[in-house]
Amino acid sequence: MAYLLHHLLRDSAARAPERPAVADGGHALTYAELDALSNQVARALLAQGVAPGERVGIFARKSAVSVVALFGVLKAGACYVPLDSKSPAARLAAIMTDSGITVVLAGPATAGQAAAMAGAVPALRAVVVADPNRDGQAAAGPEPGTATAGEPAVVPWEAVLAEPAGALPADLTIETDLAYILYTSGSTGTPKGVMISHRASLTFVDWAARCTGLGEGDRVCSPAPLHFDLSVFDIFASCLAAACMVVAPENMTVFPSRLAGWIGREQVSVWYSVPSVLTMLAEYGNLRASGLPRLRAVIFAGEVFPAKHLSRLMDELPGPRYLNWYGPTETNVCTWYEVPPGAELTAPVPIGRACANTDAFAVTADGDRVAKPGQEGELYVRGPGLMSGYWGDAAKTASMLVTNPFQAAYAEAAYRTGDLVTLDEAGDFIFLGRRDGMVKTRGYRVELGEVEAALYAHPAVREAAVLPVPDELLGNRLRAVITAEGSLTREEVLDHCRRRLPGYMVPDVVEFRQALPRTSTGKIDRAGLQGTDIQEREEAGGH
Amino acid sequence: MEAVINDYISKELVQDPALLPLGNATSLLETGVLDSLSLLRLVVFIQERFGIVVDDVDLVPENFDTVDAICAYLRSRDGETAGRA
Asked: Does residue A314 sit in the same domain as residue A276?
C-alpha cells in the first residue's frame, strides 16, 4: 500500500509503465520515464548532500520539469517548497530564508534566475537543473561548474542523467514526514509556510481520485500554479490513477475561446480551477461551438462561484459533473458538494459535506455545535488531512490547530478555518464569510495585514488601512486608504508595493486621506472606512 | 485612440513598474500584463468607452496582444466606433 506520495508513482509505473504520465506541449513522459528520471533527480540531490527532511525549492512553473523535480525531492526523503518565479525577489528570498532552503531545482528557463537568488540568500549552495524534455547531449542554461565564492554550484541536466535510473534502495521517510510546504499570505507581513505531510496529502488524494472516478483514460488539467494547493490534485491524483496530467501552456487561460479550443484538442476529461477562469469560459468561451465532449468533470475551488455564471456554464456545457470543493491550504479539500444537473441556482452553491476520513463541524459563538439550519458558527476541521503546522511558528500553529472541543476522552487537534458557515435544510454547509482580516482575491488568500505591513514599510506612509471591495469576478478588489507625510503619489505607492508583494496582493485602488477615522478605543475604524462614498473612491483611484 | 488604450493599461493593468512607459508594440501576453481577469477588465473598458460589443471570436491574441493590435482591431470596426475616440 502507498503511504508516501511517491509510492503512487512507483505503483503506477509498475502497473502502467507505458501510459502517459505528463503531457506538456509537444513533450510527453510515460510513467516509466517519470519514475526513472525522478530517481535520477533524487540521486543528484543526495549527491549534493540533501538530507532527509531538508527543504528543497522548486523554481519552475508547473510543467514536466517541475513534476520530475518534485518527485525527485520526495524520493530523496526531502520536502519540496514551490517558489513562484514571478514573485518579487524580496518575497522569494524571505521564503527561502524562512524555510532554510540551500538547494533549488530549476528548469532551463529559470536556472539563471534561481542562481541569482544567492545574492539575497547566501545559504543557497546548489541549483540542480531539470530538463526532462531534452536528452543529455546539448548544453543549455547557465554554465555548469562548482561553487565559487558567493555563487551556488550549478548541476547540469547531463550530470543528473549520469546517475543510475533504478529505484532507490529504501524509503527515507515515513508518512508523518513533510512532503511539501506551501507559503500563503501572513497577517503580520511575512508569508507563512503551511506544512503538509505525506499522510495529510494522501488523505486528500485518495478521496479526490475516488470522488472523481479517475482512471487510466483520464486527462486531467488544472491551470493552478504549483504554489497553489489546487495543483496537488492534478499532480498526485492523476498519478494514483495512472491518468495523464495535461499541462496548460503559459497564458493559455487568458483568451477564453482559445482555451476552450485547447481543452477540446487536448481531450481534457477532468478540469480543476478557480471559478473566475470558468466564468470567462462561460461568458466568452463560445462553448457551444466546441462542445467539449470528452470533458466529464468540472471542479472548482478557491473562491465563491457567482450563481449566474455557474448557471450559464452549466447551460452552455450540460455534459460534465460539477463539483464545488472547499478547504483552506491547512486542511486540503475538506468538504465538497456536487451541483445537481438542471438545478435552478439563485445563490452560491453550498460547500457541502466532509470528505472521506475528514470531519467538519461548526461552533457557535457560545461554543455549541451548529446542528440545524439558521445557526451560524465557525467551521472546524479534524482528521488526518490537517497540516502539521506553520513552519517555524509554534505560536501561530497553536492558535490555529486547537484542541477539539467536542472530544473529551483525549486531546485531538482541530483546525479553526476562520470561515463562518451555516447549514441548509439538506444538511450541507453554506459559506457565509470570514471572521478576520483575510480575503480572497483572484482565488488567492490575502491577509489584509500583510498588505498593510508592506504599505507601512514606505517611509512616507503614516497610517494605512486595506479594505476589501467585493467584486463579482475577482472575489475582492483591494482598496488602500493612506495618510502620508509630504507628497506621495499613487504611482509611488503602487511601485513600492509591486517590489514587495505578488501581483494579486497589490492594491487595486489607492486613496489618500488627511486622517483615518478612529473608533472610541483608538483603533482604525474599518467599518467607517468601508462605507466610503463610491464617487470619492473612483476619483481617488484615478479612474 | 492609442493614448486612451495605453493610459488605461498602464494605470490599471500593468503590475511591473519596469514596463512603464508602456510601448504600443510591447507584447501584453509575454510581459504577463494580460491574464484572464485583466483581459476581462480591458474588454469591459473597451466596450464601455467605445460603445461596442467584443464578440467571443474576436477575443484572440491577434487582436489584444499589443496596444497597436487593439487599436487596429477597433479601427476594423470603425463604423461603430467612429468619433468616439
From this structure: yes
Q: What is the Cα–Cα distance from A419 to A372, expressed in whole angstroms?
A: 17
Question: Which CATH number goes with the domain that contains A496?
Answer: 3.30.300.30
What is the amino acid identity at position A528?
G
How far is residue B69's CA from residue B73's CA, in Å, rounded to a whole number?
6
Nearest to B32 among A86, A286, A506 (CB): A86
Nearest to A503 among B15, B39, B43 (CB): B15
Q: Tell me the residue type at A219.
A: R
Angle between the N-to-C axes of helices A275-284 and A256-265, in degrees from 0 to 180, rounded to the nearest 10: 100
Given a contact cutoff of 8 angstroms between Cβ atoms, the answer to whether A185 and A170 are in contact is no
Q: Give the pLDDT confidence of A68-123 residue by residue, as tens digits.
A: 999 999 999 999 999 998 888 999 999 999 999 999 999 999 999 999 999 999 99
pLDDT (average), residues A250-264: 91
Structure letter (DSSP) for residue A531: T
- Residues in B whose CB is inside 8 Å of some CB of A read 11, 15-17, 29, 32, 34-37, 39-40, 43, 56-57, 59-61, 64
Q: B36-50 and A275-284 helices cross at what angle (nearest 10)? A: 40
Q: Which fold has domain B2-81?
A: 1.10.1200
Residue A188's CATH number: 3.40.50.12780
Q: What is the pTM of this model?
A: 0.88
Instruction: Judge: A258–B56 Cβ closer than 8 Å, yes or no.
Output: no
Residue B9 DSSP label: I
